[in-house]
Design a protein that fits this description.
The complex is a heterodimer. Chain A is an all-alpha fold. Chain A is built from 14 helices and two strands, in the order E-H-H-H-H-H-H-H-H-H-H-H-H-H-E-H. Chain B is mostly helical. Classes of the chains: A mainly alpha, B mainly alpha.
Chain lengths: 368, 331
């Protein structure tokens, strides 16, 4: 008996776990990640860790303006995350958020560019909204059609669509730019045609409100509607879905239309409400970050507010570190990466239980 | 005419080699069922680790010897990308995390590491431009056969590359044979197709996943090293590597998971890029059309992906368990 090889620990799946333990594990992971981040920053800058943490907070809460920038970052990231979530829930790995956002932004910019002096803002903005939603939806629908009809791998397809979108944007940037540098610059700087109205003197307030409404809407859609139910059935088991008479193809197409449309709205908010210009970096990797935001929140729109806050907070904080300590901005990516690794790793301890050899022998003894 | 053609083929090959390294590495990885979207980050890490090694050797050594000048960056690059591969494996295989999320995080991290340390070294070197030049090391890496230039077009097309380029071709050919003809390859494919069955047949699934992903990462990392030391003549500037990592992933699909096909396909990808930036393809006088040509590799990849799924031939499909973590006790 003692001769047989028994592993040091045994891994088993947890049946269920109280929510406070799972959040305690996540919090512990974040604390551990922050310690590692501080250590890395100390090694690279020689600054003391307290100052580093203070700086991270200053990045988001230092001034009123910085706080609004944080809210803006949070809401756009949240919007893209909301967009990809319905698809993820049905196990359709839409990592084409980046491209869908860009195409939505491109459609918005095209409306502003070509129609800016042809129609009043009251008409132009609705046209922009429709155009961006359509563009995003079509971009997402293409991979969905092939997935539904021929089971084409959607992860790889949507990934490739990102780069097609990037080159398309790059093409139009070169067409629209009159100086030959390939940079469009602010569109309609004088007439401000197609710029979103500034509410209460705050440029980003409208974006924040739109995304807040969308968050609630997506939550209700996924939780309390028939569509939302069908999505989770398809995600849990496609065979069960077929057996109970859900048309899986239809659900895939419909959900991806929604996913793309929401991405289009994110592009609209970025171009019409924030940047008033377009470039290949308008989406800024948010399509990829959104995958992580959505997954970390277990595809729950309300928790996504928290996770997108975390990532926006970190990115603002680390660019503040970069600025204060004279490091370059990529330092933020390193810190974000470290924190993501810890959170990703922590999910294991939420889903599985480790029982060590000594304790498992005891259990065996008591059963015998 | 022949000389010009040879010149362009030469450029296309040089452009294609980083993609070939990347796609060979990613193919091996995907054959084990791991969809490593961290490859772009790993290639960055491979590149910057080589640069770091070269930087300190150039600074430290009074007289540079050819052997350590090549060996040190090579080992640094391999070690860097191995660490990234291990991290990916630890999270996805041991901790069974979602592969897409982990891969994307690795890419964020790797690109961040590359640009951060790149920027740091540029600042340290006191360079007036936003780049770091490692000409001396690059010269060793770019050593070619002495008689290549005397053989005209033949020499330009076939013999004028540095050792890393030939290594890329050899590695991908070996990987192709290994996957299709060896027992190890058979086991690896079994792990990627159906890990539960492979496990039941006595194959150590985790060992194969770790092995293939780590070796794959190291191969991909060499693509980053080749890009800096050879293609870019030892000049590191941030973000210069661009989206080559994603192109490498596209190439995996384009070659339908066959590393040996990658040799020609990577040259095709490189060739398309060279043709578009050199104004050889017709643009109708509109420079912006170049940007549309850069779309071509991705569009071709989509077409291949769609066609293989429509024709639905068994041997042309992605590994069946691609992207899924394996847990023995889950049924």
């Amino acid at each position: 008996m003692n001769r047989t090889h028994s592993p040091l620990f045994h891994i088993s799946k947890r049946a269920s776990i109280p929510w406070y333990i799972s959040w305690a594990i996540r919090a512990a992971a974040i604390v551990a990640a922050m310690l590692v981040c501080a250590l890395v920053t100390m090694l690279l800058t020689g600054a003391d860790p307290i100052r580093i943490y203070v700086t991270i907070f200053q990045g988001s809460f230092g001034t009123v303006r910085k706080f609004w920038v944080l809210l803006q970052e949070l809401s756009i990231l949240l919007c893209v995350s909301l967009a990809v979530t319905p698809a993820f829930k049905m196990r359709f790995w839409n990592i084409g958020g980046e491209g869908q956002v860009l195409i939505g932004g491109l459609a918005t910019a095209a409306c502003m560019f070509y129609l800016g002096d042809k129609m009043p803002s009251g008409l132009l903005i609705p046209v922009m909204i429709v155009a961006s939603i359509l563009a995003g939806a079509i971009w997402a629908l293409i991979p969905a059609i092939f997935k539904a009809r021929w089971n084409t791998n959607e992860t790889l397809f949507t990934l490739m669509m990102n780069y097609v979108a990037i080159q398309l944007v790059s093409y139009f940037c070169n067409i629209w730019d009159r100086k030959g540098s390939g940079i469009v610059g602010i569109i309609n700087p004088n007439t401000r045609a197609g710029w979103f109205p500034v509410l209460a003197g705050r440029q980003y307030l409208l974006n924040v409100l739109v995304v807040a409404v969308l968050t609630v809407a997506v939550y209700i859609y996924l939780r309390y509607t028939k569509h939302g139910y069908e999505i989770s059935v398809v995600g849990e088991s496609e065979r069960t879905a077929r057996y109970v008479g859900i048309k899986v193809e239809k659900v895939i197409l419909r959900t991806m239309l929604l996913s793309g449309a929401l991405c289009g709205i994110a592009g609209l908010l970025l171009v019409g409400g924030t940047d008033h210009t377009i470039s290949t970096t308008t989406a800024g990797g948010r399509g990829f970050t959104a995958v992580m935001v959505s997954w970390l929140a277990k595809f729950d729109p309300i928790f996504m507010v928290l996770t997108s806050f975390l990532l926006a907070f970190l990115s603002r904080g680390s660019s503040q570190i970069a600025q204060n300590f004279g490091l370059n901005h990529s330092f933020g990516d390193i810190l974000t990466g470290i924190i993501l690794f810890f959170i990703i790793g922590s999910e294991f301890f939420i889903n599985y239980r480790l029982s060590f050899r000594a304790s498992s022998e005891k259990e065996d003894g008591s059963h015998a | 005419m022949l000389e010009t053609l040879a010149f362009y083929i030469n450029r296309a090959v040089q452009q294609g080699i980083p993609l070939l390294f990347g796609s060979t590495g990613e193919t091996l990885t995907e054959k084990s069922g791991n969809l490593n979207l961290g490859i772009p980050g790993i290639m960055y890490a491979g590149g910057i680790c080589g640069v770091i090694g070269a930087f300190f050797y150039e600074r430290g050594a009074a007289v540079m010897n050819p052997f350590p000048a090549v060996f040190i960056p090579l080992v640094c690059s391999l070690a860097g990308s191995l660490l990234m591969g291990l991290l990916y494996c630890f999270l996805t295989v041991s901790l069974r995390a979602n592969q897409n999320v982990t891969g994307l995080a690795i890419t964020t991290f790797g690109v961040g590491v590359g640009n951060f340390f790149g920027g740091y070294l540029i600042k340290t070197s006191g360079s007036s431009v936003a780049s770091l030049a490692l000409n001396a090391t690059s010269a060793f890496f770019r050593k070619t056969l002495p008689f290549a230039s005397k053989l005209g077009a033949f020499g330009t097309v076939f013999l004028s590359y540095s050792f890393l380029a030939y290594l890329a071709v050899i590695v991908s050919l070996i990987a192709g044979i290994l996957l299709r003809r060896s027992r190890v390859g058979l086991h690896l494919r079994a792990v990627g197709e159906n890990p539960a069955t492979a496990d039941a047949a006595g194959i150590n699934v985790n060992r194969y996943k770790y092995g293939a992903t780590c070796i794959g990462s190291m191969i991909a990392g060499l693509g980053g090293l080749y890009y800096v030391m050879d293609y870019a003549s030892g000049i590191w500037s941030n973000d210069a590597f661009g989206d080559r990592g994603w192109l490498a992933i596209a190439l995996v699909i384009f070659t339908i998971w066959r590393p040996d096909t990658g040799v020609l396909a990577s040259i095709l990808y490189g060739g398309l890029y060279i043709l578009s930036i050199n104004n050889i393809l017709p643009t109708g006088g509109v420079g912006a059309v170049k940007e549309l040509y850069k779309m071509l590799p991705y569009v071709m990849t989509i077409v291949v992906l769609v066609l293989t799924s429509i024709r639905n031939k068994k041997e042309n499909q992605p590994p069946a368990a691609l992207g899924l973590s394996y847990f023995r006790e889950e049924r």
